[in-house]
Amino acid sequence: MSEATLRFLVEAATADLALALAKRRKISETDALDIVYHSDFYKRLSNPQSGLCTESTASLVHLFMQELGK
Questions:
Q1: pLDDT at 70
Q2: CA–CA distance, 24 with 32 (Å, rounded to integer)
Q3: Apex CA 43: angle with CA 30 and CA 33, to 5°?
Q4: For the chain, what are the domain ranges?
Q5: Do residues 45 and 14 touch, judged by C-beta distance below 8 A?
Q6: Has residue 3 got a pLDDT over 60?
Q7: What tens digit of pLDDT does each residue of 10-69 get?
């Protein structure tokens, strides 16, 4: 996978995660992005060897929320 493709997939997933988190926790999208970017989940998502960036949005949201304890 090219670096550009990885960046695109990670950023698209990050946006989806932040929107889901903002909606569930009733927080701003900016605060949600901050939570996502500073999470261990984001580190794994950004690692192409984890395979997370190719998972569906629903799967990523589920896994992320589980990690956050929601």
A1: 57
A2: 10
A3: 5
A4: 3-68
A5: yes
A6: yes
A7: 999 999 999 999 999 999 999 999 999 999 999 999 999 999 989 999 999 999 999 998
Cα-Cα end-to-end distance for the chain: 32
Neighbours of 62 (CB within 10 A): 13
Burial 31-61 (b: 16+ CB within 10 A, else e): ebbebbeebebbeebbebeeebbebeeeebb
For residue 49, the SS3 value is: helix
Q: Tokens representing 41? A: 């989940």
For the entire predicted model, the pTM comes to 0.90
